[in-house]
Amino acid sequence: MDWEQIAKQLGSLGENSESGGTEYAIKALDIILGKEFIEHTVNWCIASKKGSAVAGSVLRHIESNTALNYCYPGFNVKVQHLDGKLPKELVCAHEKRVSAFGSRGT
FRET partner for 14 with CA separation of 20 to 30 A, picked from 23, 34, 45, 96? Predict the structure, then answer.
């Protein structure tokens, strides 16, 4: 894992400084886990396969922008964030099945 590369990708490295925090961590998890894995996890939850409770909990915990964009094509994540938190409910619709992921209670 090349953390310097991830930090550069996130824009958290300055010439003589470095930034971190929850928002950078959320974005880094999206990079580390990857789009394919996150979309697979969303589909797993939508299909209500065994283990979907844990998978849904992981999606809530990581607050993935990739998952939001996959659930809502064209979704404007910046507009929907409130003080850096996801909306109260993340609702994904796929093939007439609906799965609601609640917030982390923050």
Answer: 34
Range of the domain at 48: 21-102
* Rounded distance between C-alpha atoms, residue 27 and residue 30, angstroms: 5
Q: pLDDT tens digits, the chain, 106 residues: what are they? A: 899 999 999 999 988 999 999 999 999 999 999 999 999 988 888 888 899 888 888 888 888 888 888 877 654 544 444 444 444 444 443 333 334 444 433 3
Is the residue at 2 inside a domain?
Answer: no
Q: Is residue 12 part of a domain?
A: no
pTM above 0.85, yes or no: no
Nearest to 45 by CA among 60, 30, 35: 60
DSSP assignments along 26-41, one per residue: HHHHHHHH-HHHHHHH
